[in-house]
Amino acid sequence: MKLLRALSPVPTVAALVVIAVTCALGNWQLGRAHDKIARAERLRALADAPPLHIGTAPPPLPAAELVSRKVVVRGRFDAAHTVLLENRPHGNGQDSRSGFLVLTPLRLDDAAGIDAPRAVLVLRGWLPRDAQDRTRIAPFPTPEGTVTLQGVALADVPKVYQLGGADAQRGERIRQNLDLEDFAAELGTLLQPFVLQQRSDSGDGLARDWASADLGVERHYGYAFQWYGLAALTLVLLVALTWRRARRLAMPADADRATAAAPAPADVVRNDD
Q: What residue numbers bound the domain in which 131 lies?
């Protein structure tokens, strides 16, 4: 009870807010780690499945179920509409250089009707950026003629934070982000509702060592440990400071009780004899 009476309202509320926020952040980091682990397990399960052959007909599965599945497509690259997404690190997580993601539409061969998707957007690979001039692009060949590509279906083009809208970069070769539906309107062509992350080699020299789905799990566990540690430290400091304040408040009362309980000094009897 003395410890509860010694609690100071403002520091106590502040400490409880810190504890609640840090625990929530720790839970969030754990959730991200678990999501990456679950995604990696799903990818391992899909790795043994046969690839889906996608043409201009609608996909055999809903777009959401296509994500992370192996896909095979056949067609011709539309090199004139290649887009480079800048400020992208190397996918393996070890190369700190900035570079570009190279995306090119692939015009599909097997036409299935006027209203059917006529192309698929291919995320071909990564290209390092020139350190002095971002517009000086190292040459990379685009295969001519009909090619067969194998890769993994992505829900959309990977995005980064961007100031302003993406419409300002419409029609440019170097961009910050790319929206699949907007790019389809720009091309005037129906696109398949996924992006093909190319895995097969096409002799273009682009890097395709894409990041693993569980990359960074250890980092998320480390961040979670730090947040939980901060919450525990805040709680320990709150208890220690409250206990110290309780002792300080109890000291005058203890001193008064000790004084009251002490025997009165005996009267000094003077003997004049």
A: 51-212
